[in-house]
Design brief:
alpha/beta, 5-stranded mixed β-sheet, 18 helices, globular
């Protein structure tokens, strides 16, 4: 990283917030212990105040020999991706997909028929353009929101996170999509409903048998992992709707939905800026852990800190602009750009603040301060992510004491974990700090678009 052109004076106004963003080893230890406790509780029973720990109705990992063609739909936090996945066996596959950004007017205040109608339109367009025969294909649906499954191809939406379509909550998203496709004359029905973390886990395991977990960290953040069936006390409540081969399996895939960790706010390190951001969200009071980590929220924390300091005359010169005062205007991608600039003059910050945010050029010391804020917000995120992954590893080991030296690989995807400058390095540093020598068993493998072929595998297993 760039060497500091200045050392911040000990009494500089941003020092207290920078200090608050730093997480000590003892804080990480407390967070990990609390998370393990909440994960165990989620495995035992249902409840709105705890981590859901949702069975995925999948009782096996892929062999790598699965073959076939599957039409896939991936409804994420930012885009919808439709594609044709060809599984060739021996861990090989081909993907031909089209990605479409979710329009802003559908992200909040719309209704299920409109949103899923738009998704169905993307499917119809893809099928026509690529000359697919729906009668010869299975349709697999990746759905990136907390859903309590009632079958492999059915479930009940628990809550939205990154968007809000109220009339779908408590209902089956598969029915919405099937009905929308039927209205458009497309004779195909969803064969598998899969969370994106689950499909990332399955996709990763198709090419790497050491894969035990799937992480998504981009707009949002979540993880799925392989659990021992006997370690899931509430499993019996779900088993009645499972196929015999799934019901009798020794293992089961769990979608944690860990975004809702520590809703009681007992260990998570919320700053005043995190609290303000939560107040402004459509799911106020929920997914507090995700709001400290994911790409949708990191940039806004930086913006609030910088804007408050600028407006108070503690940073920069001249009046604050409306552009910097606009909520969510400072995207997490700007943080990545700033951290990648290792020049001594930090020109990226100058260009960003003068061109995008219409401010007077920050002094070199101010640029250094802004970069320090960005680094601390990103590092806090990465250390929390590493802590949470360490908790998943320890939980897995607690329930599988016989796997003393077995590798524990995590298939990971998303713009933050996969693209952000040196983010994964910071995650691994936190894992090593917490697990010591056991960290040698853990690997976070970036697996771009593993979710796409993972959901296809589920439909064929």
């Amino acid at each position: 990283m760039v060497s500091a052109p200045y050392t911040l004076p000990g009494d500089h106004p941003v020092i207290p917030i920078l200090s608050e963003l730093r997480l000590s080893h003892s804080q990480l230890e407390s967070i990990m212990a609390k998370l393990i406790s909440e994960l165990e509780l989620g495995l035992a029973e249902e409840g709105d105040e705890r981590i859901p720990m949702l069975p995925a109705f999948i009782g096996q990992i892929p062999s790598g020999d699965e073959k076939g063609n599957v039409l896939t739909v991936d409804f994420g936090g930012t885009n919808v991706r439709v594609g044709l996945i060809t599984l060739k066996g021996n861990g090989k596959f081909e993907t031909e997909a089209v990605k479409s950004p979710i329009p802003d007017h559908l992200r909040s205040g719309s209704d299920g028929a409109t949103v899923f109608g738009w998704i169905a339109d993307q499917v119809v367009s893809y099928v026509k353009k690529h000359h697919c025969d729906p009668k010869k294909l299975k349709l697999a649906f990746t759905f990136s929101y907390a859903t309590r499954q009632t079958a492999l191809n059915a479930g009940t939406l628990v809550r939205w996170s990154k968007i809000s379509v109220p009339d779908v909550v408590g209902k089956d998203p598969v029915k919405f999509l099937n009905e929308a496709l039927k209205k458009r004359g497309l004779d195909i029905h969803v064969a598998a409903l899969v969370n994106d973390t689950v499909s990332t886990l399955i996709g990763g395991a198709y090419t790497n048998p050491h894969t035990k977990a799937g992480l998504i960290l981009g707009t949002g953040c979540n993880v799925a992992y392989i659990e021992r069936s006997s370690a899931i006390p509430k499993f019996k409540d779900y088993a009645m709707n499972m196929e015999d081969k799934v019901k009798s399996s020794d293992i089961h895939v769990i979608n944690t939905e860990w975004a809702n960790f520590d809703r009681a706010k007992s260990v998570l390190p919320q700053t005043i800026y995190d609290k303000r951001q939560d107040e402004a969200t459509t799911n106020k009071g929920y997914n507090l852990f995700e709001k400290l980590i994911s790409g949708q929220y990191m940039g806004e924390v930086v913006r609030m800190i910088v804007a408050e300091a600028w407006e108070a005359g503690k940073l920069g010169e001249g009046p604050i602009s409306e552009e910097l005062k606009t909520p969510n205007a400072f995207q997490s991608k700007y943080m990545d750009q700033i951290e990648r600039d290792e020049t001594s003059s930090l020109d990226t910050i100058s260009q960003l603040f003068t061109s995008t945010f219409k401010l007077n050029q920050p002094s070199l010391q101010d640029r250094f301060i802004i970069r320090s804020i960005v680094q601390q917000v990103a590092t806090r995120s990465a250390r929390l992510c590493g802590t949470a992954l360490s908790a998943i590893f320890k939980l897995y080991c607690n329930h599988n004491p016989e796997v003393k030296n077995e590798p524990f690989h995590i298939a990971a995807d998303g713009s933050v974990i996969g693209i952000y400058w040196r983010y994964r390095e910071r995650v691994m540093a936190a894992i090593r700090e917490l697990l010591g020598d056991q960290a040698d068993r853990v690997a976070v493998n970036i697996t771009p678009d593993a979710s796409a072929h993972g959901v296809a595998i589920v439909a064929l297993m």
